[in-house]
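Supplementary Methods, section 5.1.

A reviewer requested that the exact input to the structure prediction be made available. We therefore reproduce it here, unchanged from the version used in the analyses.
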Amino acid sequence: MSIYIAFEDFYNNVKASLADGTFAKLTLAKTIGNTDLMNIYVRPIVEEGVLKMELKYKFQQEEVIEIHTIDTARDKLVTFINNPFMSAILFTTEFDLTYKLNKKRAVSITEKTNTFGNASEVLLQYLNQ
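The structure derived from this sequence is encoded token-by-token as follows.
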């Protein structure tokens, strides 16, 4: 399976956790080599009554924030898979889902017990309005 098709499957879990109110956070991590971009942290925000995603790019010397729709966030994030990031972790209140590339660029998606007990407050407020 292509790493990008697998990421699409992974991101469908992100969208589902947003829809059912279990999303806590999403992180892209484990870079290839020594890169200036260290992590991307993703969290939901509400802008003009619309649920969107805030992408916080953590560089070695600065942070840059971008706001995207849920689908354009996926399009933006997939460009960082395999260059420079080797993993993405979705944290929900029900489970943690890890998308990982190994050295041969084979994809694995694994589910573990949840790390977070509470969903994003912004998401819960949005869903309850």
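Strands lie at 23-31, 37-47, 50-59, 63-68, 85-92, 95-101, 107-113. These observations are discussed further in the main text.
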